[in-house]
Specification:
This protein is mainly alpha-helical and 99 residues long. Helix content is 87%, strand content 0%.
């Protein structure tokens, strides 16, 4: 048979060469996969940023109203506290005076 003429060392060398070629191909595939994942991640960040900016643009009236009311409450809180301390306001009048 033709297989008896092949040395064991030749078989081992051929196996090593094939495994090295296989590792190189897998390394290339892994590199392509990592590059693809990086590009996908960047694309997701860009899309999320654009969506966030668009949402802020669409809700600008609600956001301005909410932030303005929070600022007004923050600014008037010392005045309400002082009027309560002086005795000019009690608990029930605090909320109705400024509403």
């Amino acid at each position: 048979m033709g297989y008896s003429s092949i040395d064991q060392s030749e078989v081992q060398h051929a196996t090593e060469v094939l495994s090295q070629v296989s590792l190189d191909q897998n390394g290339d595939q892994a590199e392509v996969l990592q590059t693809s994942i990086k590009v996908g991640t960047v694309a997701q960040v860009v899309v999320a940023t654009i969506a966030g900016i668009g949402l802020i643009y669409l809700l600008k009236l609600v956001l301005v109203t909410t932030l303005s009311s929070m600022l007004l409450a923050y600014v008037l809180e010392p005045l309400v506290g002082w009027l309560t301390l002086v005795g000019f306001l009690d608990r029930s009048e605090r909320s109705s005076l400024f509403c």
